[in-house]
Amino acid sequence: MAERTCHVFLAPHYDDVALSCGGTVAQLAESGAAPLIVTIFGGLPAGPLTTFANDMHALWGVGPHDVIATRRAEERCAAEALGANTLWLDFADAIYREDRYTSDPQLFGTIDPAESSLAADISKAILAALAGLGADPASFYVPLAIGNHVDHQHVFAVGKRLAAAGHDVWAYEDFPYAGDPAWRESIDTHARAVTTGTERLEPLTLTQLKRRIDAVLCYGSQLDVIFRHQGDPAEAIRRYAQTIGHGQPAERFWRIG
After folding, report:
1. What percent of the chain has pLDDT over 90?
2. Cβ–Cβ < 8 Å for 102, 132
3. Span 213-234, mean pLDDT?
4. What is the dihedral of CA 187, 146, 208, 213, to 10 degrees?
5. How far is CA 252 from the centre of its chain?
6. How far is CA 106 from the centre of its chain?
7. Mean of the per-residue pLDDT values of the chain
């Protein structure tokens, strides 16, 4: 099978790429560069759910039997808005991994020791899936793990492993965490501490920014939760993109070495 070059965006969850760097995905699609969004923690819940998981479902307005189908339908809508292809892996979201993460402090805290090999397992699964598609990754994009969600930490660790293996890897600034005042002032310091310190600014056209916003609006089950502290989704996205671009919309990436 002939390999085809593509840019691979790794999303911890079904909305993370559209939220954080959807404009760049749209830009690549416009240029014919075939972006691929791979959702890592996209598998079905297994076993009995914790109270915390059920509470999250209630916030999303979905039940345990239709949550993944709902999230995947939203992802397909977003990918169509961006012009991207999609692939989802079967690793379980943190809230479904037994009783390891049953509160927000745990979800945004330290990775459970039982998951010490998870990044290696994910890396192998990604490369196997890409090989099965006949895809040759030109670049990988992973979350910077702003906000400290354990699933974002795992996927950042995957990015480090891919970079160590010789791949071109860039970290995107996780939104909306990056727009939170609690993180906004420390993003540069954090990024320079965990990456090579090389940053890349991608200016966006108004059309590309709109496609990012349109994609984010596909995630109807998530919007009230995601933007509960930042207000109107479209305005929050525009505000941060213009802040990054010093008045012109942009998205920023950091090279992982």
Report:
1. 89
2. no
3. 95
4. -120
5. 14
6. 19
7. 95
Handedness of CA 239, 241, 242, 248 (dihedral sign): negative
Type and span of the H or E element at 10 = strand 4-11
Q: What is the pTM of this model?
A: 0.96
Rg (CA), the chain: 17
Instruction: Read off the amino acid at residue 3.
Output: E
Written as one letter, the residue type at 203 is P
Name the residue among 30, 77, 67 with its Cα closest to residue 215: 77
Contacts of 162 (CB under 8 A, 6+ apart): 123, 126, 140, 142, 169, 256
Helix intervals (H) in the chain? 16-30, 51-60, 67-82, 104-107, 118-133, 150-164, 181-184, 187-194, 206-216, 223-226, 233-244
d(CA 20, CA 240): 10
Q: For residue range 26-37, list pLDDT tens digits in order.
A: 999 999 998 999
Domains of the chain: 4-256 (3.40.50.10320)
Q: What is the C-alpha to C-alpha distance for residues 135 and 85, in angstroms, rounded to an integer?
A: 12
